[in-house]
Amino acid sequence: MARVLDRIWVRFGLYMAGTIVVTFGLVMGSLLLYSELQEGWLHRSLPKTASAELARIEEVEDRNSARFDEILREHGRNSIWLDETWLLFMALLLCLPAGLAAGFWLSRVVTQPLNSIAQAANRVALGDLGVRAQPVRQRGELAELVRDFNLMTDSLENLERERRATAAAISHELRTPLAVLRARLYAIYDDVIPGTPQELRRLLDQVEHLGRLVDDVHTLSLADAGRLSLHRSDIDLSAACAQLLSTYAGRIADHNVRAEYRTDIVPVHANADPDRINQILSNLIENALRYAASGEWLEIAVHRHDDKAVLTVTDRGPGLPEDVVAHLFERFHRTDLSRSRETGGSGLGLAIVQTLVIQQGGQVTAERPAEGGTRFRVALPAA
Q1: CA pair distance 321, 327, nearest whole angstrom
Q2: Cβ neighbours around 254 below 10 Å, total
Q3: Cα–Cα distance between 302 and 244 in angstroms, integer?
Q4: CB neighbours of 121 closer than 8 A, spacing ≥ 6?
Q5: What is the DSSP letter of 382?
Q6: Sheet of 363-367: strands edge to edge?
Q7: For a surface tag, which of 51, 180, 239, 266 has the fewest beta carbons within 10 Å of its beta carbon?
Q8: Interior angle at CA 158, CA 368 and CA 126, nearest 5
Q9: What is the pLDDT of residues 129-185, one digit of tens each?
């Protein structure tokens, strides 16, 4: 019942009905009051004989009698106080202020939230994303409209903040390797440093970093635009992870990390894109090698849990503070505040992991095991 009364059309109808009832009561009350005043004035204005005869008629006869009307016509026809038109005018004069007050109040109830939204929308259109519509004390559609508008502006403000941060981070990521390339190439050109294979390898590493950054930004841009290509099928997640881990064996060994792989006896199948699965696992392994190589241990596990195919990547690194876990999947977020590319990467790897997992109907989380380190858990729809 309370939810029904919260609807603006129900409350507006009740307000209108109440206004009509109050106005009708005022009309009837004013008519009764005027009738009493009219009768008193009539008796005082009549001659004593006519007043006495009128009082006798009122006591023993009906006021609709012919003699009653004759007395009124004879002694009161020139008085405007006995005119019915004047009576209606007095009733309207009494009821008009009440009707206007009720109408103004109803219009304020309806238009105040809309006016607040209109003013806020105008400022948002001018670029002020920090403005909010004033909340209303009422409940119902208008309160929901104000709340939804404010949530929309919150989203717009967050998107704009993220856009600016992304633009600043991309410019930073592009500027540094380009500056290194420019300086080293000028030095080789001016014979300041020799163009040895080692120097060319260093320059190639910068180019490859730029290429990875562009590819990562391109992937996220396609996902934001809803144009990320996915070719989902029934894949053997256990076999796919084992194959990718074998290709990373040399790189893992170079970091002095011991890798372990566990899976169910029965192969675990998932409904996913095999290329995107390789991209997800590659980013998680690279993240572990970059941040948790000091733990010298890495575990990749695949198992079935209810209707999910679950992939976990666990390390024994230094772990992550709680405040870092809350922002771990944000774009260009690094735990390394120095933003060094030797340890920090581009800051897009985990953001890509989250995007690819969500695009395939899954979920990814970061956990802090009791043994220490970090565990990433990817849950995908099982096939």
Answers
A1: 11
A2: 10
A3: 13
A4: 149
A5: B
A6: 258-263, 297-305, 308-315, 374-381, 363-367
A7: 266
A8: 175
A9: 888 888 877 677 778 888 899 999 999 988 888 788 777 777 777 787 788 888 889
pTM above 0.70, yes or no: no
Instruction: Give CA 18 to chain center in angstroms.
Output: 37
Contacting residues for 334 by C-beta, under 8 A, at least 6 apart: 344, 345, 347
Report residue 233 as tokens: 């099928």
All structural domains of the chain, each given as residue ranges with its CATH number in brackets, are 1-129+136-142 (no CATH), 149-225 (1.10.287.130), 233-381 (3.30.565.10)
Alpha helices in 126-196 (DSSP H): 141-189
User: How crowded is the C-beta side of 95, counted as CA atoms within 13 Å?
Assistant: 19
113, 148 contact by CB (below 8 A): no
Long-range contacts of 219-228 (CB under 8 A, 24+ apart): 219/352, 219/355, 219/356, 220/331, 220/348, 220/351, 220/352, 220/355, 223/355, 223/356, 223/359, 228/355, 228/356, 228/359
Q: List b or e across 141-174, with b for residues whose CB sees 16 or more CB atoms inside 10 angstroms.
A: ebbebbeebbeebeeebeeeeeeeebeebbeebe
- Is 79 exposed, middle or buried, given 0-12, 13-18 or 19+ CB atoms closer than 10 A? middle
